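If you are new to this repository, start here. Below is one unmodified record pulled from the training split, so you can see the exact layout before writing a loader.
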Amino acid sequence: MNKNGNILLALSGEGSTPSSVSSLLLEFDIALPAERTSVVVDHFSYDKVSASDKHDVLLVPAPKAYRPDVRDYFAVGGTIAVPRAVGQTLGNANPHLAPILRAPSTAYSYNPKEESGSVEDLFAAGSQLSLITAFQARNSARLTVLGSAEMLEDKWFAAKIKSVAGADSPTSNKAFAEKLSQWAFQEIGVVKVGRVQHQLNEGKAASGANLSVSESPELNPTIYRIKNDVVCAVSPESLY
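And here is the target side for that same chain:
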């Protein structure tokens, strides 16, 4: 990522998450359950066809825009099947971190290898759990953490699901996976900068007018003094 690379990290509740992966994600303020075999279950929003007993195939509505001022890059509609997901919790103080897909309000993280059927020390529940997380660094490199690698399997692209309410419908996994991979590898959601200009803050430059060589002795100088007041203008070429 320091070299502007992008990473799509897929986790799976089918196996144990390596401690090295958990430690790595903590560097991004993303926490995984201490029990490395935990999965997210939901007794109210699950697929009755494939998870009638374990309730570990979540049925989640396609995500909407994270904030009103953010473009919705994952608008595919319908329902996404999320099998055996590893839930994540996100730090509150990291502005580079955002959930792409949250767990339903009735979901919780559960370790199926626990002998007792009760959940005593709950890792997280409901919207506290992020099923898919996005991190964009200052250099625009992206890390996408996918809690369920299984949701990318071919069988879920064309699967028919049945909710607890009894409604049958196809999944939106294929369309969502396409949007997710496009965002993860910067095929969408990118501002392309066309022109960058900077100079000492003098005259018309201070009022936000267009910069020009005539308004300053030097445009885009290579050196400023520490206490110089500088004005900068960035002109986007395109947004895709």
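Two things worth knowing about this chain: The chain has a mean pLDDT of 89. Residues 191-239 form one domain.
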